[in-house]
Design a protein that fits this description.
This protein is α/β, with parallel strands linked by helices. It has eleven helices and 19 strands.
Length: 435
């Protein structure tokens, strides 16, 4: 089965928790801290891999998760980092986030993008030592790994693409000139999936794509061809195959106008791609003056061919190889890219449901301690929030003493510190009380 669009649900690994531990020594009932820190969770990475042909595995299993970090241990043993999850996709895959924004276009094998970062491992009490906390009896919890849904869209990478109506002879031609073996039938039939073939012409090679047949209205969603128009976007050269047999009811000039209109409706860039025009099934009757037809279509030349007998095929392939080589020299090599987003703010303050909510990774990290009922742990969390600027942000937003403030699952009462020197009335009263 050929699968070229999927939605996957990804989750980075959780960070391991830090641990509280002390070395026991005679005369020192508590001893010095020796609790190790937890390991970071694994990241989620998507990489272009030429050994991957389709996105079928992600259709069958859309949920994937990176490895979790292990917890810290005593004797200053730190936890192991979780394994990264590396997802292979075919070269030419576009990655979009939940909002539909393109975050990466992976063209060349080996190109990759880090979609999700693993949760940070929590610090053990060794790492939390400070001048004010010589022997901390608390540690940090590990962070949860981030999770999100992403869309993968595969676009075939080909030098030239065959474009034509259903049953125009595209599959017959690519089967004759390459090792590709698409399904071919002797009745009206269209290819249901794109096929790629490597064509050797003299000392040159190029990749030829057989795109499912287009019909009028394909760009608006009619027929099957519109699902594969994205694959034409990657091709440098377009080869229009017009059915010239006496069995075809649509005139060749009408076929050409419909095909060019559908490509232009899908993308204006496609309308300006270098192109060649061939008349297929020349062995099945239908007489055409190719010179007159070329003038009618506004092209330099029209190639009459037969995919069954091979008539005119070699001449067409040499022309395609020449056009591909010329286009390659004129156009810069297509490079993939990764979208670098701006760094998110440390936190944000908002009011909802009668309480103040502090959201943001840094705010969560400030209170991510294992036991906030311990005064020293609560003091450390309060100091972190103050340094982060949360107190000032709450005051600026209009928070009042006694208001509830939520950070994640933690809810506490807002009690700002009062400096008597900041209040002129208090200062005046204090001066009056001096002897």
């Amino acid at each position: 089965m050929f699968v070229d669009t999927v939605t996957v649900h990804l989750r980075a690994g959780n960070g391991g928790a830090g641990v509280v531990a002390f070395r026991r020594q005679k005369g020192k009932p508590r001893g010095r801290p020796e609790g190790g820190s937890g390991g970071d969770g694994g990241d989620v990475i998507v990489e272009a891999d030429e050994s991957v042909a389709t996105l079928l595995r992600y259709r069958r299993n859309p949920h994937h998760r990176a490895g979790d970090g292990s917890h810290g241990e005593g004797d200053v043993r730190h936890g192991r980092r979780g394994d990264d999850l590396v997802l292979g996709v075919p070269p030419g895959t576009v990655v979009r986030d939940e909002d539909g924004t393109v975050v990466a276009d992976l063209v060349a094998p080996g190109q990759s993008v880090r979609l999700l970062h693993g949760g940070r491992g929590g610090s053990g009490n060794v790492a939390l030592q400070s001048k004010s906390h010589r022997a901390p009896g608390f540690s940090e919890q590990g962070e949860y790994g981030s999770e999100s849904a992403f869309g993968f869209e595969m676009k075939l990478l080909a030098d030239a693409a065959l474009v034509g109506f259903p049953n125009a002879g595209k599959s017959t031609l690519i089967a004759r000139v390459s090792a590709a073996r698409p399904k071919i039938a002797d009745y009206p039939f269209t290819t249901l999936q794109p096929n790629l073939g490597v064509v050797a012409v003299g000392d040159r090679e190029f990749v030829l794509a057989d795109i499912p047949g287009l019909i009028e209205g394909a760009a608006e969603g009619k027929g099957l061809g519109h699902e594969f128009l994205r694959h034409v976007e990657r091709a440098m050269v377009l080869v229009f195959l017009l059915d010239a047999s006496s069995l075809q009811t649509e005139p060749v000039d009408h076929q050409y106008r419909v095909l060019t209109a559908e490509l232009a409706s899908h993308s204006e860039a496609l309308a300006s791609r270098p192109r060649l025009v061939a008349l297929t099934k020349s062995d099945l009757g239908g007489e055409h003056d190719v010179d007159e037809l070329a003038r009618t279509l506004g092209v330099e030349r029209v190639f009459p061919i037969s995919g069954v007998t091979g008539e005119g095929v070699a001449e067409l392939l040499y022309a395609v190889a020449e056009l591909v080589a010329d286009t390659t020299q004129r156009l810069p090599e297509r490079e993939g890219y990764v979208l670098h987003r701006p760094v998110a703010s440390a936190f944000r303050v908002e009011k909802a449901d009668g309480e103040w909510k502090i959201a943001g990774r840094d705010a969560l990290r400030a209170v991510n301690l294992d036991d906030l009922t311990k005064p020293e742990a609560a003091d450390l969390a309060a100091t972190r929030l103050k340094k982060l600027g949360v107190d000032d942000a709450l005051a600026a937003a209009g928070a009042r003493p006694g208001d509830d403030v939520r950070i994640g699952e933690l809810v506490f009462t807002y009690e700002p510190e009062v400096d008597p020197w900041e209040d002129e009335d208090d200062e005046w009263e204090w001066e009056d009380e001096r002897p």
